[in-house]
Amino acid sequence: MSGLPLQVREATGADELIVLEPGRSPVTTIVTLASRIVTDAQGQVPAWDELPAADVGAIALTIRQTWLGKRISTDTRCPNPGCFERMDIAFEIPAYLAHHCPQPQVGVRPGHDAGWFEFAGAHKSPRAAVSFRLPTIGDLRAALAEADPERCLRERCVRPSEVSADVAGQISRAMAALAPSLTEAVTVECPACGNSHELHFDPVRYSLAELRDAAAGLYEEVYLLASAFHWSEDAILSLPRSRRARYAERIRRERAAA
């Protein structure tokens, strides 16, 4: 991950509509939302498509942390036949991000072109003529629109794009160390049977699901404010979500007391 410090402003209803009515891939949904509500430490909107692809998970978790807090707490059922006990899963976002910090990769050095890498001490091996760069968010979005995403990424990020399986594996390991993916298997132990199970955690899809649940009351609140104050939909959607919720709660109380 790039480690870019991010600031997230409070969302409006218009921002929440992006997660409620996405109509696009999860990655593009997060980037679209970030382009509206996230800035760097200087208040500038980063060039999202130029950041490492691994950053998209960190961006999603950062937005989720601002909206809902830093602790992720969920549960699932033990898949062991005859058990099916509930297994609780809980961790904090800052610790999860810190655990996935980039690590130096032995045998890899910066290449001649900025942003590219090559293998050190590979003069007489097939790796000697190979160079690679970390996929960006822009690369990832382009690849997801193609029939063969892996080939698209390889053509964009590896020179030459056709390499042996052994060299491809070494490139993948180097990339994973230099820009660790936040999508991984999380190990959970069942409190009843004691078996350990690996669960797939995708921070982008998980964060979007929670943001969608948190914004689910938007339509009702727009209706309440429009019917009570005769404001336009655009005016209501421009309100910060906390202020809109306070107006809606007051309307509910007054109507309940009537």
Tell me about this structure:
With 258 residues, the protein is of the alpha+beta class. It has three domains: 6-100 and 200-214, no CATH class; 108-178, no CATH class; 219-257, no CATH class. 46% of the residues lie in helices and 17% in strands. Strand 9 (184-189) and strand 10 form a beta hairpin. The model has no long low-confidence stretch (mean pLDDT 91).
Quickly give the structural class.
alpha+beta
Shape: globular
The proportion of residues forming helix, as a percent range, comes to 40-55%
The tally of domains stands at 3
> For the terminal residues, how far apart are their CA atoms?
55 Å
Provide the low-confidence segments as ranges.
none
**Cross-sheet strand order for the largest sheet:** 5-6-7-8
On the 0 to 100 scale, the average pLDDT is 91
Furnish the topology, listing elements before pairings.
Elements: E1 6-8, H1 13-20, H2 26-37, E2 38-40, H3 55-68, E3 71-77, E4 86-92, H4 93-99, E5 108-110, E6 116-119, E7 131-133, H5 137-144, H6 149-157, E8 158-159, H7 165-178, E9 184-189, E10 196-201, H8 203-214, H9 218-229, H10 233-237, H11 241-257
Antiparallel strand pairs: 1-2, 3-4, 5-6, 6-7, 7-8, 9-10
